[in-house]
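Researcher: We're teaching a course module on how sequence relates to structure. For the next exercise, students receive a sequence and then see the predicted structure as tokens, so they can try to spot secondary structure elements on their own. Here is the exercise chain.
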Amino acid sequence: MKRHDLCLRRKSGYVLHTLRRALTLVVISLLLGGAAMYFNPNSPEYGQDQIRRGEVWIDMVGNLRDVLWVDARSWDEYRRLHVAGAIAVSEDKYYIQIGSFLSEWRRGRDVVVYCSSQACASAEEIADRLRREAGADKVYVLHGGWETIVKNGTIPLKSGEGR
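Model: And here is the predicted structure for the students to work with:
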């Protein structure tokens, strides 16, 4: 065997040995991290019931002051049934409907935006626009959306065009 071949074998053996050690350390780290997360009593619960920044549970709405409800669903859904006193501000009619919001809202008033379901992104989009474009500072998205309102049953509802 030539000296050059022997040298290459040693180098490749060293590289494989180093890669095995690195992979072993990564696997051990992942296992320890997973175990720490699983067994830690202070770890947060992840999943569908996890509330995100800027959201409120329906039970938290009662703690807010003088709530102005904003319905981010379509105009047809709003007319069928909505929270009593809610203002319709949907993505497709935002610039037409924003005037109604501005006439009812005043600085410091809490605003809760809801959409048709938890998966609906319209409520977050409307909330962002109200913060950014209307200067509303206390704007929250209702976790669970319209379905939560209906299931809760304690918030008064109204049909028709509203205000």
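Model: If you want an answer key for the exercise: The CA atoms of residues 48 and 88 lie 27 Å apart. The chain has two domains: 1-43, 55-158.
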